[in-house]
Design goal:
two-stranded antiparallel ribbon, 5 helices
């Protein structure tokens, strides 16, 4: 069964532990700027929502890549960027409708959430989240519809 990140925005406090854990897992340093998950703040409402690659079935990034540098990990189902194949053309960043594939200037490659596919403990962001806003669950869905529902709900609240 495919596993996916399940995000419950109403539980997010904006502590950024997920960003810190992600950057440490992938770069060996605590630097939220290098994180593959971001906590977006709705300034009008003060709500905070973690977001990252939804590992969507459509996988526009995967299909757009001219050198097939994005592959599906058979164990996790994650769409994974192969650094050894990526040429840094950024076509995948344009193809992703959610803006969760990012170009990294220092490496000349792109990065996106890969569900920490090589970490037996699962995604670092889920393990680090103190409130349970991010969990790693068995699922046959990507969370896309839930993300859209929350974005619509939170985006329409009046300012406090």
């Amino acid at each position: 069964m495919q596993r996916s990140l399940h995000i419950e925005p109403d539980k997010c406090t904006g502590c950024l532990q997920c960003e810190m854990a992600c950057s440490y897992e992938n770069y060996g340093m605590f630097n939220p700027a290098k994180s593959r998950i971001k906590v977006f703040e709705f300034h009008q409402t003060g709500a905070k929502v973690p977001y990252t690659c939804t590992q969507c079935d459509e996988a526009w990034c995967l299909h757009a890549c001219p050198v097939e540098a994005i592959r599906i990990d058979l164990n996790s189902g994650a769409k994974v960027v192969r650094d050894d194949l990526c040429v840094g053309c950024k076509v995948c960043t344009i193809a992703c409708p959610f803006g969760t594939v990012n170009y990294v200037q220092t490496t000349g490659k792109v990065q996106k959430c890969d569900l920490c596919y090589d970490n037996v403990a699962g995604p670092a962001c889920a393990s680090a989240c103190p409130t349970g806003a991010i969990t790693y669950v068995d699922a046959d869905w990507t969370g896309l519809d839930r993300m859209r529902q929350w974005a619509a709900k939170l985006g329409n609240k009046a300012t406090a």
